[in-house]
# Entry
Amino acid sequence: MNFLAVIGRVVIATLAEIGKLSRFTWAAVSHVLRPPFFLRMTLQQMMQIGYFSLPVVALTAFFTGGVLALQIHYGSNEFNSEALVATVVALGITRELGPVMGALMVAGRVSAAIAAELGTMRVTEQIDALTTLSTNPYKYLVVPRIAAAVITLPILVFIADIVGIMGGYMVSTASLDFNAGVYLKNTINYIHDNGISSGLIKAAVFGFIIALMGCFHGFNSKGGAQGVGRATTNAVVSASILILAANYVMTSLLFAK
# Structure
């Protein structure tokens, strides 16, 4: 019966981790609208999360748009429907690839950084020192990072949408001999507010997940340097998985008929 005991321990550990994450999420969200507000810390995190992530997100979006244009063109050649390239690139970037790819790149950069920073503060007892000084660590450390990520991710994704569509346009006109005016006309005709707004809503949720996972794993890290390393790895992996899962759920809800 040992295998049943192993399964039981795994289930109990998983439920305990879910409960811990739920309590952490509630504690973080409940402090968002409560004073005091550390505006300076929030602005600093917006720079760290948003501005310094812009080159990575823009390059990813540009090459994603170019590759998407190439693949759609190669596939549509078999059915003589090359005119769909601009449409598919625009819809794919704004609805799915822009938010998801941008969020995954930010998760790899930001979740790891947040987890490492907070994990180091935890193992060196700096978080305990904040509590001793009557400073709520959720208000000072967690809330500014979550607020900054929720605000900056939609901006990053909006820029990624523009750069990704531009990448598809440049590849299509330079390498695939598309007419520039016709390509732009098809792109504009098939970009709808619903597709753009749905991508920005997804980006805000993804930003919340990225910051939450980084803060959660960093806040609860233990075991010295090895614990900080585990927290960093777990933050990136859990944020990436939750982004993909949340993308499926939100797509089914936003585009349900």
Q: What stands out?
A: Residues 31-254 form one domain. The chain has one domain: 31-254. The mean pLDDT is 86.
